[in-house]
Write a structure and sequence with these properties.
The protein is an alpha+beta fold. The chain has one domain: Nitrilase/N-carbamoyl-D-aminoacid amidohydrolase. Helix content is about 30%, strand content about 25%. The protein has helices at about 5-20, 40-45, 50-65, 145-155, 170-185, 235-245, and strands spanning about 25-30, 65-75, 80-90, 95-100, 105, 115, 130, 135-140, 160, 190-195, 195-200, 205-210, 210-215, 220-225. A six-stranded mixed sheet has the order 7-8-9-10-13-14, covered by helices on one side. It is globular and about 50 Å long.
Length: about 260
């Protein structure tokens, strides 16, 4: 997706894309799919969970009888704000709720300074969700650069990790696909990483796109390079078993 500043327009677009995925078991949206705006606007438009966005998504999950991973929204908890991912089951119930742990406070050469901590508080807990026998870990964007989070998920038996993102183009061109494939290969799990594309309406920073689904051997099963579109793949538990049997790296760990 390429989300803008209008909550209503972004939500409508997201619901339309979800509808177009009818028949899928799991549908995943990118980070900040419902709002990309200035820090004050994000603070002002933050919402509770449950709230208006999650209510609409819960209804859509019930209608389509699918699992739905709501990339991330700006969550309000009293005076604090969190960058939060919510997972809904086929009945529209909240099955998982993850708050982004690693906040993006950087100076991007040739672009600008970004301080996610100006708006958000950091989460403190990883989150696993059992999706009909698939053990799934949750991460958001900058979390991708911290392998210890993904090794935690591997240690507790993750088969699949969701990484909804709004990765900048400058860092994405250098590192996005390399890091996604590394996380899949080193933890021998599937990775599903929907990303924003296009210019952020306030920061004017370009997002990288290249949403991807990657298997535990590091093969790219689907990719949307730079457009608003749907990427699909069928995940095979036998593929997981084959990769883990052929190179049992997780069993060979010493440290």
């Amino acid at each position: 997706m390429s989300a803008g500043k209008s909550w209503r327009r972004n939500l409508g677009k997201a619901l339309g894309l979800i509808e177009a995925c009818k028949g899928s078991d799991i549908i995943v949206l990118p980070e900040m799919f419902v709002l990309r705006a200035s820090d004050p606007e994000q603070t002002e438009q933050a919402e509770t969970i449950p709230g208006p966005t999650t209510d609409a998504l819960a209804q859509k999950a019930r209608e389509l009888e699918c699992w739905l991973v709501a990339g991330s929204i700006v969550e309000r908890v009293d005076a604090r704000r969190f960058n939060s991912c919510v997972v809904f089951d086929r009945r529209g119930r909240i099955a998982g709720h993850y708050r982004k742990i690693h906040l993006f406070d950087v100076d991007i050469k040739g672009e600008r300074t970004i301080r996610e901590s100006n708006t958000f508080s950091s989460g403190s807990e990883p989150m696993m969700v059992n999706i009909e026998g698939w053990r799934c870990g949750l991460a958001i964007c900058y979390d991708l650069r911290f392998p210890e989070l993904f090794r935690y998920y591997a240690d507790v038996g993750a088969h699949l990790v969701f990484i909804p993102s709004n990765f900048t183009d400058a860092t994405g061109r250098a590192h996005w696909m390399t890091l996604l494939r590394a996380r899949a290969i080193e933890n021998q799990c599937y990775v599903a990483a929907p990303n924003q594309y296009g210019k952020h309406p306030h920061l004017k920073v370009l997002s990288h796109g290249h949403s991807a689904i990657i298997d535990p051997w590091g093969e790219i099963l689907g990719e949307a390079k730079y457009s608003e579109r749907i990427v699909t793949a069928e995940l095979d538990p036998a593929r997981l078993a084959t990769v883990r049997q052929s190179i049992p790296a997780l069993k060979h760990r010493v440290l």
